[in-house]
Specification:
four-stranded mixed β-sheet; 9 strands; globular
């Protein structure tokens, strides 16, 4: 999955746990730089949760990535406007374009190259304002 951010609810966390139990490998790639600090902080919180259950994740090397690409079993690729967040999944009318052509998928996967591993240690040492944003964003997206 490649998306600018990830903000999910308990249903999707449970769904991801089921996929992991079925030995389905999930990799999340997020934008290194966010267009919105609040959303970026929320994504970091959800990545921390997903890291605990065994999800691999990366940040893109440079700048803001606004692409949304979802790859399933290296046999289906979705491109579109749908972010991996509650608004796009439940509220907005988003679009995805499905590609099943094996030749295209093979060429695309060869060209896809992510270099930078995510490092959460940088986020632990932020100012108190960031910590407050963490808490508020987390509570907001879990509807607590």
């Amino acid at each position: 999955m490649i998306s600018p951010y990830i903000v999910i609810d308990n249903f999707f966390i449970k769904l991801i746990k089921v996929l992991i139990l079925k030995n389905i490998k999930l990799i999340i790639v997020l934008s290194k730089i966010a267009e919105n600090l609040y959303t970026h902080v929320s994504s970091i919180i959800f990545l921390k949760i997903l890291k605990l259950i065994g999800i691999s994740f990366f940040f893109t090397k440079n700048g803001f990535n606004h692409r949304k690409i979802y790859i399933i079993d290296k046999s289906l690729i979705f491109f579109g406007s749908m972010n991996f967040d509650n608004r796009s999944i439940y509220l907005n009318f988003e679009s995805l374009f499905l590609i099943t052509n094996k030749n295209f998928i093979k060429i695309f996967l060869k060209s896809l190259f992510i270099k930078i591993n995510c490092n959460f240690y940088n986020y632990k040492k932020k100012k108190i304002v960031y910590k407050i944003l963490y808490i508020v964003s987390f509570l907001n997206y879990l509807n607590i």
